Amino acid sequence: MTPTSHQFDETELQGIQAAMLRAAHNAREEARKAGLKIPIWENGVVRWVYPDELTTSQPQDQSQQT
Question: Using CA atoms, how far apart are residues 64 and 49, in angstroms rounded to an integer?
Fold first, then answer.
């Protein structure tokens, strides 16, 4: 069986991006509640940090972005 590729349209890409942002936010929130560190990629190396050390914001609804 030969794998096939799929070209995503803009609407699909926006939905995928929104889902990935929500998943990342939820993972950070779960780690924060459990007192666990999470891995981040920074300057070519992996660092383990507590979610509260991150400065990323909560994901926004993609329909509100321009």
Answer: 30
Give how far Cα 51 sits from Cα of 5, 8, 19, 34, Å: 35, 32, 19, 10
Q: How confident is the model at residue 56 (pLDDT cuts 50, 70, 90)?
A: low
Return the pLDDT at 57.
Answer: 54
Give pLDDT tens digits for 23-52.
Answer: 999 999 999 999 999 999 999 999 999 999
Which two three-digit tokens encode residue 58?
């909560």
SS (H, E, C) the chain: CCCCCCCCCHHHHHHHHHHHHHHHHHHHHHHHHHCCCEEEEECCEEEEECHHHCCCCCCCCHHHCC
Check if the beta carbon of residue 61 is closer than 8 Å to that of residue 38.
Answer: no
